[in-house]
Amino acid sequence: MLTGVLKSAVPSLVALALGLLVASAVMLAFGEDPVGIFSALFRGALTTQFGQSSVLNYMYSYILLALAFLLPGKAGIWNIGGQGQAILGGVAAALLVEFVALPPVVWPLAAIVVAILTGAAWAAICGLLEAYRNASAIVTTIMTNFIAANLATFILYYVLIPKAHVPSFYNEVDFPAGATLLTLPYFTTSIMIIVAVLVAVGTAFFLSRTTLGYKIRATGLGSRPAESKGINPRTTKVIAMIIGGGIAGLAGAGAVMSVGHGCGTVACYQDGFASGWFGGFGFAGIAVALVAVNDPLASIFSAVFFSILAAGMPFAYQNIYIVWAMQGIIIIFMAAPELSRMILTQRGKRKWT
Amino acid sequence: MDLTWLILLAAFGLENAVPIGLAAQGELITEKSGILNIGIYGGMAIPAFAAAAADLAFGPVLGGGSAYMGLLAAMATGAGLNFVFAYLSTKIHIDQVIAGIGINIFAVGITAVFLQRYYTVDGTPNGNTVAPLFSITGLAQNLRISISPLMAAMFLLPILVYLFLGRTKLGLHIRAVGENPKAAEAAGVDVAWVRIAATAIGGMLLGLGGAYLTVDFNPNFVPDYAQAIFPAFIALAAVIAGGWKPGYVLAVSILFGVTEALRPVLAVSSAQGYLFTTLPYIVTVIVLGIASKRLRPPAALALPYKKE
Q1: Which of A224, A278, B48, B269 has the greatest number of C-beta atoms within 10 Å?
Q2: Which residues, other chains included, contact A220 with Cβ-Cβ below 8 Å and sequence gap of 6+?
């Protein structure tokens, strides 16, 4: 069984290695020392308190957005819209906190529920369009990402900032203390990482052990075989999108409600989601899911790798954009299992299938 | 009544439309062959950077003519990048959608890396720009509208694309492999290479659209990702909203360009401007939702084909 796991991890490891290799080649071409840079990266991310907190901060978003991509994917529907669903979830949480005052414990919980519902509703649009109007979610989720990002920025400047009476050049809204999430001891990050790992375990259980999870996987294998088993593939696809969107919405709530690294403000959300559309977490989440070969539990480990990269790069190299280039390369290699197979067979390791 | 603002709107709208229109015709050719190129942002951003770099490199040698080297560099990198993408997706059976996402993220990273290494984080210095074909003056006071060769190309291209797809052998093959690759294969068409050709030709036009942003409309490349994000994904939207027909795609591209030009006119505050930016995307989602049963996308779009 263990060798089976190892074997199935081979394409992922090859893709990661190739990503590191290409990045190193670029650094070498620039006359820089990749070994020194990467060791500084790992030292910074793993041995400093700031680095460790930063890793955890990236990790929960990566895990949740990977799940938001892979769960609808199991039903055969492409959710490239995790980014938009998370953004609107975060905005919805911020709106609730700013406009409705609730008792301490209920307040953040209510904000999280609103964020999940918003993300789910936003994803449902694309799910319904694909299931009932034959409009590919590949395209509609990309379009709705842009709608969400701009809508969120509008709400931030037009509603949230005036409400909080903060001069707009600060671009930020501070959350009241009672509405933020608990902070972990020692680390300057919230309990979201624990939530994210629990959601990943829950997703794995849901997909493999529940009737609905079975229906989702059956739909992913093809609409006609699913129908022959008495499953309605359309409804199932929409439900899978709704669950994925809800998970993305949860990530958005975490981003605005976590204290630490300047979070607990909408500004944090603004930097993380709306402005940096591509540096945004949605696409990193897709990379995490792909490297995990769409396995919820493996996503946790794959998220560790990407979080260390993202959190450690500022320690090592001023040219942090190389991380994005690397993510792109890794994604491309993950898209082609046959590519890594070719590379391996040329080295004579023909046993691996 | 003062018509100045209408003329301005048309002028700015057309300028906005050029990168959208050029890229959309390129994406159209690619999609007609059955390849959905989600990597359209990368297909514009990397050539846009190459155009600015070539422009700067040849500036001391060629003077103002260096902008044309920028255009050439952009078309070459666009075609090259898309060639690799299409080769991987048809011969190595890489997943088109995933590879496209990868190319987009890679483009953001690699252009920024090179920018920081060879220029500054804020962008390349200003280079030369393509000389306008002619200028229109006298429509309104102090108003001078320059018609760039690329704008002329935007209007000409749909006709060329229409003739290419409808009247040439390669064009017919492209449509055949986009509709029914199996039948095309049986008729002796090499599906993979026709798709690779269509994607590379499309890449040339994506590159041209990207170059408009860095050696024509602007004289430089700035790492403000909005610079190429806006036209790239709007172009993807325009292909769909235009129903995969070259003329309609041009019309929709201009419409989207004008919408963007309306933003500073109608939006009272900059915040409201963000709502305007969403319009083309909303239009596309609505078109897909309402007319998807009547739209005629290439039947084999985004479906990989494996020789038996």
Answers
A1: B48
A2: A73, A74, A75, A76
Question: What ipTM, to 2 d.p.?
Answer: 0.84
Tokens read off for A73? 């994917």
**DSSP letters along A267-323, please?**
HHHIIIIII-TTTSHHHHHHHHHHHTTT-HHHHHHHHHHHHHHHHHHHHH-S-TTHH
B163 touches A at CB < 8 Å: no
Nearest CA in chain B to A156: B271
Percentage above 90 pLDDT, chain A: 31
* Residues forming beta bridges with residue A190, ordered by sequence position: A183
CB contact under 8 Å between A147 and B282, yes or no, is: yes
Instruction: Please report the domains of chain A, with CATH numbers, ordered by start residue.
Output: 1-32+317-353 (no CATH), 55-311 (1.10.3470)
- B113 has a chain A CB within 8 A of its CB: yes
Residues in A touching B103 (Cβ below 8 Å): 328, 332
Q: Is the pLDDT of residue B288 over 70?
A: yes
Q: Euclidean distance between the first and final Cα of chain B, in Å?
A: 67
Write phi, then psi, for B303 (nearest 5 degrees): -95, 125
Give the mutation candidate from A146, A161, A320 for the B interface (greatest B CB count, under 10 A): A146
Confirm or reject contact between B222 and chain A (CB < 8 A): no
Tell me what pLDDT residue A338 has.
60
Higher pLDDT, A223 or A52: A52
C-alpha–C-alpha distance, residues A334 and B158, integer Å: 36
Which of A27, A91, A134, A147 is the mutation pick for testing B, counting most B CBs within 10 A?
A147
Confidence of residue B200 (pLDDT cuts 50, 70, 90): very high
A240-256: per-residue pLDDT in tens?
999 999 999 999 888 88
Interface test with A, best of B121, B236, B269, B274 (most A CBs within 10 A): B274
Q: Which helix (H) or strand (E) holds B92?
A: none
Q: Look up residue A347 and give its DSSP letter.
A: T
Dump pLDDT digits (tens) for A279-291.
467 778 888 998 8
Determine the Cα–Cα distance for residues B216 and B47; give it in Å rounded to an integer.
13
User: pLDDT at position A1, please?
Assistant: 53
- Number of Cβ atoms within 10 Å of the Cβ of A164: 16
